[in-house]
Amino acid sequence: MNELFFWYAAIGTAVFAVSGALLALRKGMDIVGVSFIAAVTGVGGGTVRDILLGDTPVRWVTRPADIAICIACAVLVSAFNKRLLGRRMDWLLYADAAGLALFAVLGAAKAESYGAHALTAILFGAMSATFGGIIRDIVCGERPILFAKELYITPALVGGAVYILLPEALGFDIRAITGLFCALFLRLLAIRLQWSLPFPRYRAPLDE
Amino acid sequence: MNELFFWYAAIGTAVFAVSGALLALRKGMDIVGVSFIAAVTGVGGGTVRDILLGDTPVRWVTRPADIAICIACAVLVSAFNKRLLGRRMDWLLYADAAGLALFAVLGAAKAESYGAHALTAILFGAMSATFGGIIRDIVCGERPILFAKELYITPALVGGAVYILLPEALGFDIRAITGLFCALFLRLLAIRLQWSLPFPRYRAPLDE
Amino acid sequence: MNELFFWYAAIGTAVFAVSGALLALRKGMDIVGVSFIAAVTGVGGGTVRDILLGDTPVRWVTRPADIAICIACAVLVSAFNKRLLGRRMDWLLYADAAGLALFAVLGAAKAESYGAHALTAILFGAMSATFGGIIRDIVCGERPILFAKELYITPALVGGAVYILLPEALGFDIRAITGLFCALFLRLLAIRLQWSLPFPRYRAPLDE
């Protein structure tokens, strides 16, 4: 993975950590709780991915840069949330879309390098991108983002699928960047246009 | 594991996936969310079992048949739930009992083959059979099946215990089928007769 | 790890199991559910720690003493809770503090022995000490202890930090006992004096 992706991954982790810290603050946690939720959100998706792939000890055991980023975000958000957040938060939504797109591609790429089936690799991309947020919501007692109206998991699936379906001969960079932009584009459109998937109509069974 | 058990396991996975898809539909998720919950419910128990045993990458990384079954169930349930479910749902309850009995025996057998202590192997059977449902309920914000009135975990424990306590000389098939039928029989009786275990009376401590 | 710590760890597991059994009883679970929650609470923290470190199969697969302790606690609490608990429960709070302090030190020590970075090792201590309780609360539908007013995670972090920051030349026993007493002392003070960390003031973003 090249230098550019390293920095982008750090930014993605930071954005997810900020989203976790904001939720924890809103729930009234103290600074340790806020840091905990920030770290779980920032590294949760990649950690679940690595456990399922058997890539343990997970990376942050020996290289805690990601964890340090999450804690730094938690402290900064706690200190400056009054000044920082007393304004429109759209930038956070857009940054989250960037993190989502990146982790979807990185997750699919990592699963592929472990010999995963194409279907599984695409799912691993979506998992890496969304499990941090799902764990964050469960621990904080929120409705998980799975219930979100606008497309959220779908752009991650699309990004992973583009990466996986592009021929390997194109090389990691081209496949990854194409997948990333497809996911990002779809997520941004979904935010702008409030796109959603059809909700199947549910009719309760008679004996319920 | 012989051919028969392979097919039975596929049916068990499908039944669990259907139960997950139905709950997700009732909660108002879109088709991606429904598929996600179906997959988590269908393979969740076996995945937790394999992570605890260290059998990673988990099986569906390279052989995604189980995941494909879950997604297919989610799509079918979403498409046909009006026609399919506008009637008595008892068949789902009975099918779930079959899945429960099978995974209890398979989980205990797998743990035994990893050198687990007999007590742990029985617990692994119950975990394999129930964790998918527990994760489903937590992600969907439902009271976990742990709170169910009728015996649910207990038949799984009994099935695993029968398998483990029968002498190895009988061979896998006889031990597995006997354990499976004991678990199935007990679960069906519990459904019919509304059997439940004693609920210990709780008296709150004075300082609460 | 010497004999003394083995016994202390068994006591810590038992105390956590009792806290899980009590919550499950209050929630109206039957004896199997109570045992399940007791076991998850008692061994959950160490299990998550071992999965992240890649130390699988987890210890209780082959050596189920900890699980047996948890089940015994669940049965005893269920049988005697009327007699046992119809009085002040402070002793449980203090015993929980002892378990917290011990697992914080043991978790940090185990992570260190796996080559973890100092920051990660301290976090592993806190995880080992608190994840059992967090899983217990999520499965039972309670607000996780993360929301607790009094210091809970912080003493665990302090205990792990003292252990990690003391020079290795002092030997395991001295480092562990010092870390343990620091964590225990801080937790007991926090209970007595209702110490809490500052709660960052949250100001909702304008567009919320």
From TrEMBL, chains A, B, C:
Membrane-related topology note: Multi-pass membrane protein
GO cellular component, one term: plasma membrane
Chain segments annotated as transmembrane: 6-24, 31-48, 60-79, 91-109, 115-135, 147-166, 172-193
Entry keyword annotation includes Metal-binding: no
Pfam families from the UniProt entry: Gly_transporter
InterPro entries documented for this protein: Gly_transporter
Domain Glycine transporter stretches: 7-80, 94-166
Compartments, record wording: Cell membrane
Keywords: Cell membrane, Membrane, Transmembrane, Transmembrane helix
PANTHER family: INNER MEMBRANE PROTEIN, UPF0126 INNER MEMBRANE PROTEIN YADS-RELATED
UniProt record similarity statement: Belongs to the UPF0126 family.
Name recorded for this polypeptide: Glycine transporter domain-containing protein
Organism: Pacificimonas flava
